[in-house]
Amino acid sequence: MAERDITRLSQQQFSSQALGYSKSQTFTAGADLDAIVSMANGVKAKYAVDIGSGAGFTAFAVSLFSSTVLSTDLALPMLQHAIEGASSRGLTNVAPALASAESLPFADGSIGLLTCRLAAHHFSDVTVGVSEWARVTEPGGTMILVDTVTPEDPDVASWMNDIELRRDGSHSRDLSVQQWGDLLTANGFTIEETVLMKIPLEFDDWVQRSGTAADVVEAMRADYLNAPDAVAEAFGIETDEPLRFFWPCLVLRATK
């Protein structure tokens, strides 16, 4: 089987679905976004960068803590929504940047605040991505990560990653909390605060936002309805219509 080009798939996916993501309540607001603001409180950066910024909601939220915020993404339509969103909010310090997470166009040690919200599981190589975070973050700088995470049980983790990949071919891999901790520490970050929360999701809205094919949606629905007990418990699956569940979500602040 040919290796997937996740970078290209991500560009295609988030270009074609940009409008839906720009209006999704999962991204426009949420406890995880509130947690980012709380963790960034007190930071005074010259430059901040939001990785995989999508329609820019995280960049908008942290604009209070930096003179300039660069909203980066692979998908130009997403950045167009970010430009429009910044303008409508009167934010003059948010600027777009078309960039890959694995090759950031920033100088070593130049970024005082780096954020990445619900994007890292789409990186073609998360190890390279984190090494780029470490390279561009200034000494003493702050990094705030939000991403969905797998339970530590390998069978439940495999179920989650399989479902995510079938829903969206640009999915790379959800890590566990332990894997994130090990990866960040290995790249010279000191973890200062972690919060584990739940992102509530409604199945129909979730697959509509990603544009998943109808036959795939029905097969996935059957997997939710017939999920093993360990899976149903891990993700709070509620089989009454509308079908609901949650993904575990890690919010983490670290310094370089």
Characterise the protein shown here.
This protein is α/β, with parallel strands linked by helices and 256 residues long. The chain has a single domain, classed as Vaccinia Virus protein VP39 (Rossmann fold), CATH 3.40.50.150. Helices cover 43% and strands 25% of the residues. The protein has twelve helices and seven strands. Strands 3-2-1-4-5-7-6 form a seven-stranded mixed sheet. Helix 5 (57-61) links the parallel strand 1 and strand 2. The protein is globular. The termini are far apart.
Question: CATH superfamily membership, which one?
Answer: Vaccinia Virus protein VP39
Number of helices: 12
Classify the beta-strand content into a percent band.
25-35%
H/E topology pattern:
HHHHEHEHEEHEHHEHHHE
| CATH class assignment | Alpha Beta
Q: Can you tell me the CATH topology?
A: Rossmann fold
Structural class: alpha/beta
Count the beta strands.
7
Task: State the separation between the terminal residues, measured CA to CA.
Answer: 39 Å
The total number of structural domains is 1
* Average pLDDT, all residues: 91
